[in-house]
Amino acid sequence: MDTFEIFEVGPRDGLQNETTSIALADKVRFIDYLSAAGFRRIECGSFVNPTLVPQMADSAAVFAAISRRPAISYAALTPNMQGFKAAVAARVDEVAIFASASEGFSQKNINATIEESFERFKPVIEAAKRYGIVVRGYVSCVTDCPYDGCIDPEQAAKVAARLYSMGCYEISLGDTIGKGTPERISRMIATVAKQVPIEKLAGHYHDTDGQALANISASVALGMRVFDASVGGLGGCPFAPGAKGNVATEAAVRHLLAAGFESDLDLEVLDQSADFARKLCGKPNGSPVSLE
Ligand code: HMG
Ligand code: MG
After folding, report:
1. I need a surface site. Which of 88, 169, 200, 217 has the fewest CB within 10 A?
2. How far apart are CA 116 and CA 196, in angstroms?
3. Ligand 1, atom 53, residue with closest C-alpha
4. CA-CA distances (angstroms) from residue 192 to 236, 247, 263, 291?
């Protein structure tokens, strides 16, 4: 039977754009819930400029307080060496660097052109190799950019291929503003997959237009098996105005189970963690999630 994996990004992407400060103890409880649900990889925080993303400012304290399980990789975003050093000190299992397929978002998100961002990532990848820490790569705005509009699939492929050739073990393709349609997402993946093997690609779909589940189906049809998601459908990016949350993990899992895939996630704990996450963010139970 065919399987899939959800890379749970709720504690990072899910919470980063919440304007109300969430207590450290609640973030830790949230991640401990997710560990119990059976995820193999959980993105728990970011080592970025805390004045730009205040909700992630306590990431080091989060990593110090979670109850780690040996089979789980606890991940964080590290845009530069300053972030990487902080991540190493926090005993992060894996890090992610994040580039953009569009110049507009690259500039707004990380204050660098695409080319400059690669210069910053190089020493991070080299240092990570020395520490034995694997590096994941994100490409944002793979179909649409809030500043530059529609993005040519070749541009997404170029950035993904560069990250892959630099040493990222997996490339997550971000529909940052949730405007991709199955047809455009398919075209983009088919173009990227000419340069990066499909089994090294993941889909990261925000659900602004309610297309994320259809985009997952389209991706699965092309052979993709890893998807980023946030329990409760939380998420957004401070630099992507109007973007809604990531696809809700509990909806994505049920969608893929209904399509005949297998998962060893504990659905009961998963639903409890989604309820917990929504309460943390003051959202009513079941609100943004379209369960089938
Ligand atoms: P910069 O301004 O170019 O960096 O920022 P700088 O080296 O010139 O430093 C400026 C200040 O930032 C200094 O502080 C540094 O210490 C500080 P000051 O002297 O002014 O007090 N600084 C840092 N502080 C903590 N940790 C660091 C760090 N680096 C510099 N690592 C930088 C460049 C990337 C750091 C900045 O633009 C930034 O933090 N941006 C936030 C990026 C972010 O977190 N975005 C959201 C996540 S990405 C996302 O959501 C998309 C994704 O989900 C996929 C998708 O949906 O598409 C992944
Ligand atoms: Mg995102």
Report:
1. 169
2. 22
3. 13
4. 24, 21, 26, 30
Pairing outcome for strands 144-145 and 149-150: antiparallel
111 pocket-lining for ligand 1 (C-beta < 6 Å): yes
How far is it, in rounded angstroms, from Cα 86 to Cα 49? 12
Q: Is the pTM higher than 0.70?
A: yes
Buried-exposed string 245-275: b where 16+ CB fall within 10 A, e elsewhere: bbbbbbbbbbbbeeeeeebebeeeebbebbb
60 within ligand 1 shell (Cβ under 6 A): no
Contact criterion met (CB below 8 Å) for 19 and 241: no
HSE-up (13 A, CA, CB side) for residue 189: 30
* Closest ligand 1 atom number to CA of residue 96: 58
Three-class secondary structure of residue 99 per DSSP: strand
Question: Which pLDDT score, from 0 to 100, does residue 286 have?
Answer: 61
Q: What angle do CA 63, 68, 72 make, to 5 degrees?
A: 105
**Residues of the chain scoring pLDDT < 70:** 286-292
Q: Is 46 in the pocket of ligand 1 (CB under 6 A)?
A: yes
Angle at 136 between CA 211 and CA 46, to 5 degrees: 85
Ligand 1 neighbour 237 (Cβ under 6 A):
yes
- Closest by CA to 124, choosing from 76, 176, 158, is 76
Cβ proximity of 169 and 200 under 8 Å: yes
Distance from residue 48's CA to the centre of ligand 2 (Å)? 15
Distance (Å, whole) CA 222 – CA 165:
22
